[in-house]
Structure formats: structure tokens, C-alpha cells
């Protein structure tokens, strides 16, 4: 009788966890996203349902269809359900897009439910709707959470700077939480990991890293978040770190202008005009060191290394632990987040999506805009043009910091050139997959599938009948 009661409770818990976000959405946070083939994929993290008041591990694998609008933003749809027993439920990690191969890789994060499992690299093939664990070479990896992620798309290389270790990332970890100081490089073509040195020996995390197509093979720009030396503290936003990928060399540059307040767990993206005379890194929101959250927008313009404040909102809608994804180089979709000052749901009609038009963000009273599938090319905001010169189409006059330039003076003038790459399918012999069932009407169910369904239904009915029999006898 105790066993039967346990089974019934397990069924009820599964039913609560299976709440459909598409019908009962309130909030999401600590998830991870990737844009591939006109779809913005949403995976992992936590989900809060209407009227339930509880945060649940996100067990739905969704995507925003960038070609179909609903309530002026991309329509959110469900992918075939992934197998949770195989693909771990992760929060605070990253997805690395490999657009040429129509797939993305999952890296980092902490286990949002259950005990941490051994490290594996998972990839999702968007063309086949299939998850696979791939075999990798190079340096040994472990799970780290809330690090800074960036992708060099032309070279097919992904990076992850810092992040923390604790008993939610590693089951054998018994020490206090510790942030990593290293930079992980992942070659998505050869599926090889390499560990590099970070800016220094201090652990770091919860900031932002972006890839900029400048210098020989590109640069990583990193700022914000926390740094751990003798104690964990937030970084000053005057200090901007530059990593030259080809030279494997770090520089630190002091920025000027409207320096943002220190924060962590914010998000951002980078955009540039066609002539690449400026690279403009936009950031949104974040967790303030006093425990509140912010709802503002700043832009850091390179190579001038000057901050410009574009939007400020001191209302209850400040939030952190969201994602930012740039679409077509002109719009930034901000999704989800934690709101410390309100319990209201986050735009349930769009499932927590908001859109920023990066080129027209000049009205300090309005930040969110409808998503435009045919948005014109990126335009430098007028308020930024007044600082760096040129026009909305480019031609910036500011070619370096106003004072105290610390990096190679030709860093942003070197020709960016990487070899063209082509699709490199994963060898199925080196991957174990969990493929979602094909539900299209064009491919009818196989004979084996029908037999499996019938046998499963009969077995399930038998179990339910036995449970009901014992419950009725117990009640009598």
C-alpha cells in the first residue's frame, strides 16, 4: 500500500512538471538560447507558471519562429519533447550556434534538478530534430556555470571565459564555490577543446563576452560581472578586456563616457555598420550589487572605447538572468529574466520576449519595438553618431580611445580574414543520438512503432488497473 501511494504521488508530480508553457506562461530565467536557420531555440533554465507560484525546471524545448509573428513578436512553438533521462537539465549555461551545419552545441551550466552527471558535449541537429552526445578531443572539460560565452562564426570556434564550480556542477566538489580564470576554446569543426589563460589568475563570471570581426582572425571583448580574488566582487565598467584570437594575447583598455553602474547577469550583443568603422556593443539590465535589478541600455563603441547611455528605466521592471540574441544584425531579442521588485508575469502574450531595434533606439521613453522581419541594415543611433562622428551609415571619425591607448595601434586596422569553411557533418559512428519521433503526416508510423504503441498501451493499462484495485481495497 505504501508502494502504491508512492506511485500515485510520482504521477501527480510529473503532471505538475509537465505544465504547458505555451498555455500557462509567467516567467523564465537562467535559460540558454541560440539562433539557427531563422529559429531562436530556448533550452533549459527555470519556468514559472501562472497561478502556481513555483519555479520548475524547464522540461520543454521551445523555439521562436523568426518568420512567423504573433503579437508583433516571433511566435513561440514547441519542438518534439527531448529525453530528459539522456540530455541533462541545465541552467546558467550556453548554446553555441554552428549555422553552416544547422546545429548548435550545449556547454556549461549547473544541474537544475538532481545530481550533476559527468561532463558531456551535446549537440542538436536542427534539420533532423535530433540530440547527440559527441566525442571530443583535446583538454579535459568539466561543467562550469555563468561564464561568458562568445562565438567566432566564420572560423567555427566557440569560447567560454570563466564560470564557477560547485557541487551543482560537479558531484565530487566539496569546497566553496570557486570561479575559473581560464578561457575555453572549442573547435566546432574538429570538435576539440583547448584551455587558454584568461586575463589574469583571478576567477571571473557573470559578465559579457562578444566576438568582433576585427584584427586577423577576430577579437573577443569582455567586461562586467564578478571577479574572485580573496573575495568575490563586481568589476568596474571602465576596464575593458580585449583578446586577440590569432596572437592569444590579452589587453586591458580603460573606457570613458557614461560609465554604467556595476552589475552582473546582464545580457548584450554587438552590431556594426557595413564599413565596420565602429563596433557597438549593447547591454541590457542586470543584477545590481545591492540586490535590485536594472532596466537600462548602454552601448560601448569600439575602437573609441566610449560608453553612451541610450535608455534608463527605474521602475519595477528591472531584471537579470535573461538572454539577448541579435537577429539580422539589427534587432536584439531580450528574453525572460528574474524581476526582484515585482511578482507580475513577464509579457505572457509573447512568452517573455521583448525586441530592441538597435538602430532606432533614440527615444529615451520607449525601448521595446515590434519585430520586423525585413528590417533595414543596421544604423548607428544618432545619439552615438554625435559622440564618434560619421553618419548613421558609418564613417566613424573616432578610430581609437581618446587617451591612454594600451592595445596595438593597428589592432582594429588589420584585415580580418579567415578561410572559408563548409558543412562538416558529424560522423554518426562517434555520436549517440536521441531522435524525436517524426510526427509528419507524410511519413506514417512503422509496423514496429505500431506494435510498440499497442504493447505499451496494454502494459500501461494493466499497471493502472492494478493500482486502482489496491486503492479501492485500501479505501474499503
From TrEMBL:
The chain crosses the membrane at residues 449-472. GO terms for biological process: glucosinolate metabolic process. Gene3D superfamilies: Kelch-type beta propeller (2.120.10.80). SUPFAM superfamilies: Kelch motif. Keywords: Iron, Membrane, Repeat, Signal, Transmembrane, Transmembrane helix. It comes from the Eukaryota. Residues 1-18 form the signal peptide. PANTHER family: KELCH REPEAT PROTEIN (AFU_ORTHOLOGUE AFUA_5G12780) (PTHR47435). This is Galactose oxidase.
Amino acid at each position: 500500500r505504501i508502494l502504491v501511494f508512492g506511485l500515485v504521488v510520482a504521477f501527480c508530480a510529473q503532471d505538475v512538471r509537465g505544465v504547458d508553457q505555451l498555455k500557462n506562461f509567467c516567467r523564465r530565467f537562467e535559460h540558454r538560447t541560440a539562433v539557427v536557420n531563422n529559429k531562436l531555440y530556448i533550452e533549459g533554465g527555470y519556468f514559472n507558471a501562472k497561478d502556481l507560484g513555483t519555479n520548475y525546471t524547464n522540461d520543454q524545448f521551445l523555439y521562436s519562429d523568426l518568420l512567423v509573428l504573433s503579437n508583433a513578436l516571433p511566435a513561440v512553438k514547441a519542438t518534439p519533447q527531448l529525453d530528459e533521462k539522456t540530455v541533462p537539465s541545465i541552467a546558467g549555461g550556453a548554446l553555441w550556434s554552428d549555422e553552416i551545419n544547422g546545429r548548435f552545441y550545449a556547454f556549461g551550466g549547473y544541474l537544475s534538478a538532481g545530481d550533476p552527471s559527468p561532463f558531456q558535449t551535446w549537440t542538436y541537429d536542427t534539420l533532423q530534430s535530433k540530440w547527440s552526445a559527441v566525442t571530443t578531443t583535446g583538454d579535459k572539460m568539466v561543467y562550469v556555470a555563468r561564464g561568458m560565452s562568445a562565438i567566432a562564426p566564420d572560423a567555427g570556434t566557440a569560447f567560454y571565459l570563466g564560470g564557477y564550480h560547485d557541487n551543482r556542477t560537479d558531484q565530487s566538489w566539496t569546497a566553496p564555490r570557486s570561479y575559473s580564470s581560464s578561457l575555453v576554446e572549442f573547435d566546432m569543426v574538429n570538435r576539440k577543446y583547448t584551455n587558454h589563460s584568461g586575463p589574469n589568475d583571478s576567477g571571473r563570471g557573470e559578465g559579457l563576452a562578444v566576438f568582433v570581426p576585427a584584427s586577423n582572425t577576430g577579437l573577443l571583448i569582455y567586461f562586467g560581472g564578478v571577479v574572485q580574488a580573496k573575495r568575490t566582487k563586481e568589476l568596474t565598467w571602465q576596464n575593458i578586456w580585449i583578446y586577440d584570437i590569432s596572437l592569444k594575447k590579452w589587453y586591458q583598455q580603460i573606457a570613458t563616457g557614461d560609465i554604467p553602474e556595476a552589475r552582473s547577469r546582464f545580457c548584450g550583443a554587438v552590431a556594426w555598420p557595413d564599413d565596420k568603422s565602429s563596433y557597438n556593443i549593447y547591454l541590457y539590465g542586470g543584477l545590481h550589487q545591492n540586490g535590485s535589478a536594472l532596466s537600462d541600455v548602454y552601448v560601448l563603441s569600439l575602437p573609441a572605447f566610449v560608453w553612451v547611455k541610450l535608455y534608463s528605466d527605474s521602475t519595477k521592471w528591472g531584471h537579470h538572468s535573461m538572454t539577448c540574441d541579435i537577429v539580422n544584425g539589427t534587432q536584439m531579442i531580450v528574453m525572460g529574466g528574474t524581476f526582484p521588485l515585482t511578482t507580475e508575469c513577464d509579457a505572457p502574450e509573447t512568452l517573455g520576449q521583448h525586441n530592441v531595434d538597435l538602430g532606432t533606439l533614440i527615444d529615451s521613453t520607449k525601448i521595446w519595438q515590434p519585430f520586423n522581419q525585413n528590417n533595414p541594415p543596421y544604423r548607428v543611433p544618432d545619439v552615438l553618431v554625435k559622440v564618434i562622428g560619421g553618419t548613421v551609415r558609418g564613417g566613424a571619425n573616432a578610430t581609437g580611445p581618446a587617451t591612454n591607448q594600451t592595445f596595438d595601434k593597428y589592432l582594429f586596422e588589420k584585415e580580418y580574414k579567415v578561410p572559408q569553411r563548409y558543412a562538416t557533418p558529424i560522423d554518426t559512428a562517434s555520436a549517440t543520438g536521441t531522435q524525436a519521433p517524426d510526427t509528419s503526416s507524410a511519413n506514417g508510423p512503422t509496423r514496429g512503432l505500431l506494435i510498440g504503441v499497442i504493447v505499451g498501451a496494454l502494459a500501461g493499462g494493466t499497471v493502472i488497473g492494478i493500482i486502482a484495485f489496491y486503492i479501492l481495497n485500501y479505501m474499503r
